[in-house]
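Input/output pair, single chain:
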Amino acid sequence: MAGGARLTATATASTTGAIERVVTGYLDHLTVERGLAANTIASYRRDLRRYTEYLAAAGVTGLREITESDVSGFLSALREGDDDHPPLSTTSAARAVVAVRGLHRFALLDGLVPDDVAHEVRPPTPARRLPKAIPVESVVALIEAAGSVEGPRGLRDRALLELLYGTGARISEAVGLAVDDLDRGQAAVRLAGKGGKERVVPVGSYALRAVEDYVVRARPALAANGRGGVRGGALFLNARGGALSRQSAWTILRSAAERAGLDPATVSPHTLRHSFATHLLDGGADVRVVQELLGHASVTTTQVYTLVTVDRLREVYATSHPRALT
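Output:
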């Protein structure tokens, strides 16, 4: 009995090891050839580790023996959860299925399997959630509150929030900026988006003036706090002269929200990005232009903002048109 258990354990370990080697090759492919972000790779690695554990527990004996029902069973297991894992949300389960589908397609293209057994297993569709935007007045209050802090910090914080709202940049793009990424002569900034894709975005006069004030009047003082002066060319620096982190940027925003009398739970760096897009569309901007400014690969992603503006139009109509009043 014990010998049989050892034999089964050895076979399972061998099988799992073989599948894990393919997983490793797939992740290397995504990192080197596709250039996916480190956070995305880490998420895929976690999802695929759970997939290999599921296959081993199901007694799968090789990559070629995985069936469509194994893949769909894995999706069901994600949604149901077990003693070791809570049920995953629709979004998290969908990401895991995308990772598994990518793995099987990779194995097919590499000639490791004759069929793509995951092709027909569709990720669950999350409920459509409208982006959260805040009114222009709230954005102004937020920026003013950020700039109310005395000294270099206030100038830095105001510049950061002005730039986030003025360009629609993701928080990772903003804190990753170098001084040379900002072209003050052309009033534009070069942003490095997802997958290493770069785009050039105009910078409005408010953001440009705030950044110039920070660079001239505050950044040298922050840089002087670091050993040997300036540490690299990061645009936004922390109090120790190093590059500002995403976590610190979040803290800056939450503190500004509290001082502005806004609920910090409803304000995030992405709120400013959503507000940027929504306010542009409210002002008559073409959705394709907003797509380019946001760095979306597909206009479908951007079109969700048009639903926000339709709601706004409906609200204005209902309160303004004489024949709409009840």
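The first helix runs from residue 2 to 32. Confidence is low (pLDDT under 50) at residues 1-15.
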